[in-house]
Amino acid sequence: MDTSPVLPSEFAALMRPFAPFESHPVLALAVSGGRDSRALALLAWQWAARRGGRVVALVVDHGLRAEAAAEAAQTSRWLAARGIPAHVLCWRPAAKPQAGVQAAARQARYRLLLDWCRQHQVLHLLTAHQADDQAETYALRAARDSGPSGLAAMSALVEFPEARLLRPLLAVTRARLTATLQARGQDWIDDPSNMDPRFARGRLRREGLPLTPARALAAATRFAARRVTQEGRVAAALADCAMPHPLGVVMIDHAAWRALPASLARVVLASVIATVAGAAYPPRQDRTQRAVERMRAVPRQSLSPPSGLTVGGCRILWRGGGWLVVREPASIRLQPQGGRQDEPWDGRFTICGEDGRRITDAVRVAAPHVARTDWSDWEKAWPAIAGLPAIVAALPCRGAAGRPLPVPVPGGMIASHAGREAAWARFQPRQPLAAGPFFPCFAFGKGQIVNL
């Protein structure tokens, strides 16, 4: 096994696939104090300095262990001693979750990091995920019978509205990162929770992988190649048969969708459901499959309207010779997840006032008020679809208790509503239909990220 330090020239090669960068690049680095992120900090700092740029370290204190605050302060001092400015970001929800603590902490960590990037207009956020993490991710997903997309493990680049997430070390082993620190005389902090047997990844690290890391990485590489190909097919199919609307719904052309291969039709439907539901992930495969079988049983030219169905927090209704996918009002999340008040409403709509600032108070769901709405005022929203009550029932609503009104949506409601409410809503789901592609595949044997 290669245990040589990572050289600056090698790190430059690992960063090359993520180009172009600014003439003086600014990188935000997620640094925990562990060996992986400390090695990343040193390598990225040197890379940026040679290009006239700079780095900023972001240290997240989750508050899950008594030592967390002291370790965050210690890491900040270590970074400052090397000329790397650091900011400590604290996660302090009103109540920590009783279950799924690591998942909640991970979600909160990314939210804090990305929010900082947005506020400071930093385009690139680097994390220190490495080859051992990638092998573990593959093994954990294989144990859960994840589909081919999940078995591709982590993407080296993920596009977020706030910044793009880069993982340049995915082709580098932890042993080499350890050697990088040792060659520079640098110490690190080992987080005992990484080996905690209460968590699946901790148990895996204690017990060992069920297959060699090399085999796990090779398998992930194969599935990554399949995922890239599949994503291209899905994108083309969505362009052919799915029509999104600013009101937060998607119309599926039944004839075009039914003509797709069954496996591709399922993925397309799952993508649409995730978008309309404001979910981070698509619904379970078995539930989507049952919906696909019912929907594909409807003839291309159905003489009688088939019954609707509910999947993944969405209603799927037959309207105008196609399937209208709308949010199910009963599944709407009125409380923000993770204790964050600036989360999109129900994971779908960003609501802002006239001054552009986000509104989070007094926002309700329109469903109870749909029956007494004057629909003649809404005809221009989507005149080709006879489904406005179902669409509007899932919209955010503000106003007086006696007659609350759905918040105006640019491109979705006529202008007369804007004069009644000093607010507007924009459909910005967690999982957009046109998400960035999985990127890239890896040549682990060469230690180099390569495109297909």
Automatic annotation (TrEMBL):
It comes from Vineibacter terrae. Keywords: ATP-binding, Cytoplasm, Ligase, Nucleotide-binding, tRNA processing. ATP binds at S32, G33, G34, R35, D36, S37. Its main location: cytoplasm. This is tRNA(Ile)-lysidine synthase. GO terms for molecular function: ATP binding; tRNA(Ile)-lysidine synthase activity. It is found in: Cytoplasm. Residues 28-207 form the tRNA(Ile)-lysidine/2-thiocytidine synthase N-terminal domain. It catalyses: cytidine(34) in tRNA(Ile2) + L-lysine + ATP = lysidine(34) in tRNA(Ile2) + AMP + diphosphate + H(+). One of its GO terms (biological process) is tRNA modification. Belongs to the tRNA(Ile)-lysidine synthase family. Pfam families: ATP_bind_3 (PF01171). Its EC number is 6.3.4.19. Coiled coil: none annotated. Ligates lysine onto the cytidine present at position 34 of the AUA codon-specific tRNA(Ile) that contains the anticodon CAU, in an ATP-dependent manner. Cytidine is converted to lysidine, thus changing the amino acid specificity of the tRNA from methionine to isoleucine. InterPro entries: Rossmann-like_a/b/a_fold, TilS/TtcA_N, tRNA_Ile_lys_synt, tRNA_Ile_lys_synt_N. It comes from the Bacteria. GO terms for cellular component: cytoplasm. SUPFAM superfamilies: Adenine nucleotide alpha hydrolases-like (SSF52402).
